[in-house]
């Protein structure tokens, strides 16, 4: 039995993970699970899966422990960030699913890396922020890093098994094609985007996801973060990765080889597929996903991304090229701006403007030290908050 730690069990990826675990009870058991706000749901998860540990914020720990006890459960509570780190590096767990949203997932995910676990990475922000530091730690501690983001999981499936041993160009790979759905506002122009509401932005046409990633999909920042994620996962420069808008989300990404072959991974848009793939790799297990019916899917179409209406993709590309702490600053400013947009304060088209201001006001700094990264993350958040004030009052 493989013992799984699930960071972010109450979210959308958490729910998909639990569904796959429940379908394969002879192979996996839930060792630890975390929640942040929706603690009623966390309690239900504990009742169903009876994990050894549940991690909740410090202020909720005592009352949650009491609720577990009243339900007749022996699940122990671990608290706060230290609790997340502790369950991620625990010797009794082999697999850590990193499904917390945003920078909050960085330290526990890094702890799992440093403990040499198999990490199923959904929390792209953690890798975007810490880049080389993260990948070096994977090498040093011989962790197994498996991408769960559907595009990166697709690319992983289309690459040679030993792809990490040498540069992709030496293995006949010309480029990666990263697909994007285009989000709910595909085809809209800048002017039309000005009045977009949070409710419109979170209504994704193909995927049901958490609020933050849904807004990121609508601004194309999600594709920007994914471009950076792909650069790190596959040791490439952005020039070797082409973003292709594919509104049906049936092809999850592709690898183009120099002999003209292009390999794609396809399937219904359901995160249980990449989660099941990464859980069982190199085996295959049941994910509960309906087989793809190509005839019912109909035509598959492709188009270029509109950099003018959706500047976030290029902001991310530039931040990666500038290197150092710029991707962490980009991520921090984006988290602050998206939060403000979701609260009905910042306008949709002001999201990239806030990020651009923060990047412009930042100095180049090498990102080879966690302390520096965290302090730059904090500084970029403060700067973004100040910028918000200007934008919202003007
Ligand atoms: P979500 O909002 O549905 O869930 C987020 C989870 O993180 C919840 O369990 C919440 O309790 C936890 N969390 C939030 N803030 C926290 C904090 N400060 N400290 C500790 N825990 C906290 O988000 P999601 O859609 O499940 O996405 C999770 C991650 O996976 C994101 O990084 C996202 O980009 C990535 N991802 C999601 C999808 C998808 O289909 N949902 C696809 C690819 C990648
Ligand atoms: Mg994705």
In short:
It is built from 17 helices and 11 strands.
Account of the 3D structure:
The chain has 3 domains: 147 residues, Rossmann fold (3-Layer(aba) Sandwich), CATH 3.40.50.720; 172 residues, no CATH class; 72 residues, RNA polymerase sigma factor, region 2, helix turn helix motif (Rna Polymerase Sigma Factor, Chain: A), CATH 1.10.1740.10. Helices cover 47% and strands 15% of the residues. 48% of the residues are buried. It has 17 helices and 11 strands. α4 packs parallel to α5, α6 runs antiparallel to α15 and α11 runs parallel beside α14. By secondary structure, the protein is α/β, with parallel strands linked by helices. The model has no long low-confidence stretch (mean pLDDT 97). The protein is globular. The longest helix is centred in the last third of the chain and has 24 residues. A 7-stranded parallel β-sheet has the order 4-3-2-1-5-6-7, sandwiched between helices. Strands 9-8-10-11 form a 4-stranded mixed β-sheet, covered by helices on one side. Nicotinamide-adenine-dinucleotide (NAD) binds next to α1, α6 and α10.
Strands side by side in the biggest sheet: 4-3-2-1-5-6-7
* Strand portion: 5-15%
Approximate helicity band:
40-55%
| Count of individual domains | 3
Biggest sheet overview? 7 strands, parallel
Rg on CA atoms, Å:
20 Å
**Terminal Cα span:** 58 Å
Q: Looking at the structure, what is the overall shape?
A: globular
**Helix-strand makeup class:** alpha/beta
Number of helices: 17
Count of strand segments: 11
Order of helix and strand elements from N to C terminus: EHEHEHEHEHEHEHEHHHHEEEHHHHHH
**Which distinct ligands sit in these coordinates?**
nicotinamide-adenine-dinucleotide, magnesium ion
Low-confidence stretches: none
């Amino acid at each position: 039995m493989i013992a799984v730690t699930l960071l972010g069990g109450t979210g959308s990826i958490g729910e998909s993970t639990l569904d796959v675990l429940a379908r394969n009870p002879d192979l996996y058991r839930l060792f630890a699970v975390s929640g942040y706000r929706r603690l009623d749901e966390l309690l239900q998860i504990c009742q169903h899966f009876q994990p050894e540990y549940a991690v909740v914020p410090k202020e909720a720990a005592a009352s949650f422990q009491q609720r577990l006890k009243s339900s007749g459960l022996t699940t122990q509570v671990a608290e706060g960030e230290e609790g997340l780190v502790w369950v991620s590096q625990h010797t009794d767990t082999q697999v850590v699913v990193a499904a917390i949203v945003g920078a909050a997932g960085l330290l526990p995910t890094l702890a799992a890396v440093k403990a040499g676990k198999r990490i199923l990475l959904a929390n792209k922000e953690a890798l975007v922020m810490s880049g080389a530091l993260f990948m070096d730690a994977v090498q040093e501690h011989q962790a197994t890093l498996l991408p769960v983001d559907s595009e990166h999981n697709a690319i992983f499936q289309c690459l040679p098994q030993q792809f990490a041993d040498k540069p992709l160009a030496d293995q006949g790979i010309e480029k990666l094609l990263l697909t994007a759905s285009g989000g709910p506002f595909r085809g809209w122009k800048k002017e039309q985007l000005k009045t977009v509401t949070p409710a419109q932005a979170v209504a994704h046409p193909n995927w049901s996801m958490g609020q933050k990633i849904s807004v990121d999909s609508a601004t194309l920042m999600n594709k920007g973060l994914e471009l950076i994620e792909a650069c790190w996962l596959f040791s490439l420069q952005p020039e070797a990765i082409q973003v292709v808008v594919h509104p049906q989300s049936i092809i999850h990404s592709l690898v183009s080889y120099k002999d003209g072959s292009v390999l794609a991974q396809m399937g219904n848009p359901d995160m249980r597929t990449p989660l099941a793939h990464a859980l069982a790799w190199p085996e295959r297990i049941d994910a509960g996903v309906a087989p793809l019916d190509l005839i019912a899917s109909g035509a598959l179409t492709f188009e270029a991304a509109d950099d003018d209406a959706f500047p976030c993709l290029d902001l991310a590309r530039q931040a990666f090229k500038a290197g150092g702490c710029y991707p962490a600053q980009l991520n921090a400013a984006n988290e602050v701006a998206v939060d403000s947009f979701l609260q009905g304060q910042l306008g949709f088209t002001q999201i990239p403007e806030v990020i651009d201001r923060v990047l412009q006001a930042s100095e180049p700094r090498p990102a080879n030290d966690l302390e520096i990264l965290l302090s730059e993350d904090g500084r970029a958040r403060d700067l973004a908050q100040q910028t918000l004030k200007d934008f919202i009052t003007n």
